[in-house]
Automatic annotation (TrEMBL):
SMART domains: TPR (SM00028). InterPro entries: PFD_beta-like, RPAP3, TPR-like_helical_dom_sf, TPR_rpt. Signal peptide: none annotated. The keyword Signal does not apply. This is Uncharacterized protein. Residues 127-166 are annotated as: Disordered. GO terms for cellular component: prefoldin complex; protein folding chaperone complex. It comes from Reticulomyxa filosa. GO terms for molecular function: unfolded protein binding. Residues 127-141, 152-166 have a biased composition (Basic and acidic residues). Pfam families: Prefoldin_2, TPR_1, TPR_6. Residues 142-151 have a biased composition (Polar residues). TPR repeats lie at residues 49-82.
Length: 291
C-alpha cells in the first residue's frame, strides 16, 4: 500500500462527505485510508488530520458524539491549526452535555477566527445554559456580586467571558483528551483480556479433571481435532502466560496514563477552576479521582 492508495480512498471519502447523506460510506473510506496511513510514517500529517476531522464531522452528523470528540482530538494532535476540528469537537462536547469543554474549544476558535458567527452563537447559547444550570446558592452569590461596583462587575465579566486560553493551554487540553481516550481503550482491552483469561483458566481446570484416556478437542475454524490431554494443557498454559503478560503490560500503561492525566488535570484546574469540562479520571479498578 502506498500514498496513492491512501489518497484514492480519501478522495472517495471526500466525495461521499461532500454530497451528504452518505456519511457511513465516507466513514468507511476514511477509516480504510487512516488504517493504511498508520503504517506509512511518511504520509503527510496535515492530510491525516483532515481525514480525522472529516470523519469526526461524519460522526457528528450520525450522532456518534464520543467518536467525533476522539477523531477531532486526533486531528488537533496532528495539526494544531485545524480549527475546523476545534469547532467540530466543541459541537460534539455540547451534544454530550460537556458544556465547559465545549466553551473552552469555542473560545479558542473565536480567538483565532473572530468572524466565525456560528461559533459565537453557540458560545452565547452554551454560556446562557451554563448560567441557567448554576445551583441556587451560586446564582444568589452571582447576583450579590453583580450588585457591587461597576469596576468589580467589569472584572467579573472579563474573568467569565474573556478566559485567556494560551496555545500551551490548548495543547494541554488536547493532550488530556487524547490520554483519556487511550485510558478508555486500555480499560476495554484489559476487560477483554480478563474475560479471556477467566475462560482459559476454566478450560485448564476442566482438562485437569479429564481421565487419561480422554482427549481434548481443538477447534480450528469449523473443524475439531483430537489432541492428547498433555498437549492441550500445555497449549492452554502457554496462552494463559501470554495473555497475563499482556494484561500486566496494559495495566502498567494504564497506571502511567492515569498519573499523567492527574498531573495535567491539576495544572488545568489550577488555572481555569471549573470553567472547562475535563472528563473525570476513573481508575481501572473503579477508583475515582478525588476532586
Amino acid at each position: 500500500m502506498s500514498s496513492e492508495d491512501i489518497n484514492s480512498l480519501k478522495r472517495k471519502g471526500d466525495e461521499a462527505f461532500i454530497k451528504g447523506g452518505r456519511d457511513e460510506e465516507a466513514i468507511e473510506h476514511y477509516t480504510s485510508a487512516l488504517n493504511i496511513a498508520k503504517g506509512l510514517k511518511t504520509y503527510d500529517d496535515r492530510q491525516r488530520a483532515k481525514m480525522y476531522s472529516s470523519r469526526g464531522e461524519c460522526y457528528l452528523r450520525t450522532q456518534q458524539y464520543e467518536k467525533a470528540v476522539a477523531d477531532c482530538t486526533e486531528s488537533l494532535k496532528l495539526d494544531r491549526t485545524n480549527f475546523k476540528s476545534q469547532f467540530r469537537r466543541a459541537k460534539a462536547y455540547a451534544q454530550l452535555n460537556q458544556t465547559e469543554a465545549a466553551i473552552a474549544d469555542l473560545k479558542i476558535v473565536i480567538q483565532k477566527d473572530s468572524d466565525n458567527t456560528q461559533a459565537k452563537e453557540l458560545l452565547k447559547e452554551l454560556e446562557s445554559k451554563l448560567k441557567g444550570d448554576q445551583p441556587t446558592e451560586e446564582k444568589s452569590a452571582a447576583s450579590k456580586t453583580n450588585e457591587g461596583t461597576a469596576e468589580s462587575t467589569r472584572k467579573s465579566n472579563k474573568t467569565d467571558d474573556d478566559m485567556d486560553v494560551t496555545k500551551e493551554d490548548q495543547n494541554r487540553i488536547c493532550d488530556y483528551n487524547a490520554l483519556n481516550q487511550k485510558r478508555i481503550d486500555l480499560e476495554e482491552e484489559i476487560s477483554v483480556l480478563s474475560r479471556d483469561i477467566g475462560q482459559l483458566e476454566a478450560a485448564e481446570s476442566m482438562i485437569g479433571m479429564l481421565l487419561d484416556e480422554h482427549s481434548v478437542r481443538l477447534q480450528v475454524g469449523y473443524t475439531f481435532f483430537a489432541i492428547p490431554n498433555d498437549t492441550g494443557d500445555e497449549l492452554v498454559k502457554q496462552q494463559l502466560k501470554a495473555l497475563k503478560a499482556r494484561r500486566v503490560d496494559f495495566t502498567f500503561q494504564l497506571d502511567s496514563i492515569v498519573i499523567e492525566m492527574k498531573k495535567q488535570r491539576g495544572i488545568l484546574k489550577a488555572k481555569f477552576k471549573d470553567k472547562i469540562g475535563l472528563p473525570k479520571i476513573e481508575h481501572a479498578e473503579n477508583e475515582q479521582e478525588n476532586e
